[in-house]
Amino acid sequence: MVKNVLIASLLLITLSCISLLLVSGINFTSIFSDKVSQIVFDPSFLGSFLGALFSSSIALIVLFIQFNNQKKVRRQDEYRKYHKYINLFSIELEWYLDKITSEKIEKLVKSNNYINNKILRDSTVEIIKSIESIDDDVIIDDVFVRFATMKLILNEMGTILSEDLNGIENEEDENSVISSLQANRIILQQSSDEINKKLSEAKRELRIKE
Fold first, then answer.
1. Closest by alpha carbon to 155, among 194, 125, 183, 185?
2. Which residue from 100, 87, 204 is spatially nearest to 156, judged by alpha carbons?
3. What is the C-alpha to C-alpha distance for residues 84 and 200, in angstroms, rounded to an integer?
4. Please, are residues 108 and 117 in contact by the beta-carbon 8 Å criterion?
5. Which of 25, 83, 102, 132 is deepest in the core (most CB within 10 A)?
6. DSSP code for 28
7. Do 154 and 188 touch, CB atoms closer than 8 A?
8. Number of other CB atoms surrounding residue 95 within 10 Å
């Protein structure tokens, strides 16, 4: 709002300066031909011209303010939908990431315990269902690619946990699975950070307390 007022003020100041120059007594007639001078500096012409210029400037200012207000309303609507549908998913993702820290992944793969493996597989399936249930329309453009990446990564982790983990035959296979899971975990964490950053931005815009 302050920015809009400043722009409007600058336009009005510019118009005022033009008016002052025209009525200040500067001999503009020496610059133009007599016929042009008679037309341009005719009081009725100047009045009409300045009136039209002033009215047009006011109209442009009003349109500019309306455009900014509409833009702000659209942005708030985007933030509102994003916060409503992504806030819970963000919590679920943080919970999932806590279960697959680098140390826990290494311990899980090396122990290769059926029950622990199944628990993590089931958790992965649930988080995949959660992200796939999110409508693309509620995802802000800035993080759309992040969500698409997470879908790919989570599905890849599901494949590793259901197939590769059960197919470990030697230490080389074991290290390969650990490296793959840890690398995917890093990408998920980076995506989670971006999502939470955008959530914080949405909360500030909507004045929602953290």
1. 125
2. 100
3. 13
4. yes
5. 83
6. G
7. yes
8. 11
Distances (CA, A) of 7 to 92, 110, 111: 45, 65, 67
Which residue, among 191, 200, 194, 210, has the nearest Cα to 127 in the 3D structure? 191
Q: Would you tell me how many other CB atoms lie within 10 Å of the CB of residue 96? A: 20
- Length of the chain counted residue by residue: 210
- Please state, in angstroms and rounded to a whole number, the distance separating the CA atoms of residues 172 and 180: 12
Structure tokens at 16: 């005022």
The pLDDT tens digits for 165-185 are: 888 888 898 999 999 999 999
157 closest CA partner among 93, 113, 203, 200: 93
Tokens 């796939």, residue?
Answer: 132
pTM: 0.66
Extract the tokens encoding 118.
């199944």
Radius of gyration from C-alpha coordinates of the chain: 32
For 104-160, the pLDDT digits (tens) are 999 999 888 888 889 999 999 999 999 999 988 888 888 899 999 999 999 999 999
CA distance 41 to 29: 8
> If you ran DSSP here, which 8-state letter would residue 49 be given?
H
Q: Which domains does the chain have, with CATH numbers?
A: 2-71 (no CATH), 74-206 (1.20.120)
**Amino acid (1-letter code) at residue 22:** L
CA distance 178 to 135: 32
Reported in sequence order, the residue ranges of 67-122 that DSSP labels E, i.e. its strands, are: none
